Amino acid sequence: MHFEGSSSVTLLFNFWDVRGPAGMVLSVFVVLLLTMLYELLKVWKITVGKRKHSSVTHPSAPVSFSPEQSCFAPVMRCQEGSSALASSPSEISLAPTETTTATADTTATSKMSWLLHCLQTAIHILQVTLGYMLMLCVMSYNVWIFLGVIMGSVLGYFLAFPLLNHI
User: Fold this and answer.
1) CB atoms within 10 A of CB 38
2) CB of 78 within 8 A of CB of 70?
3) Looking at residue 79, what DSSP letter applies?
4) pLDDT tens for residues 114-154?
5) Where are the domains of the chain?
6) How far is CA 24 from CA 33, 106, 131, 156, in A?
7) Long-range contacts of 106-110 (CB under 8 A, 24+ apart)
8) Can you tell me where the transmembrane regions are (predicted)?
């Protein structure tokens, strides 16, 4: 197989049969727009991922300290079984905290995270499907379609990825 510069090609489906220069220009434009959409889907998936991670709050696990673990060397030497620090205010503030039960906020956050994950999965499915369709367009070995995919990728990246800085 080798690349051809003809204006006759069948793309993806039997009904997308290009015959003539006007059809080729229209097909290149459609492929260019599909490739730009592919780049926009990449940015959208990243945006949803950032939103998903910012909405999820993980409760921190309680930390317990004992006087044996508290060691402020050179000022104090640690001694096993020492109760010198047990009654100090700093030691009381390090007491383990009680874990809270799931509240309405954590349930809502959990549902939102799940919905965002489903949206991100749907975007991924669209992105993979569109990517394979564009690959098959390139595999038609038509120079004009290939250039449409390349230019669509360049324009899509140029227009879409600066949007990430505004998120």
Assistant:
1) 23
2) yes
3) -
4) 999 999 999 999 999 999 999 999 999 999 999 999 999 99
5) 8-57+105-166
6) 14, 54, 21, 21
7) 106/57, 106/59, 109/55, 109/56, 109/57
8) 20-41, 114-135, 141-164
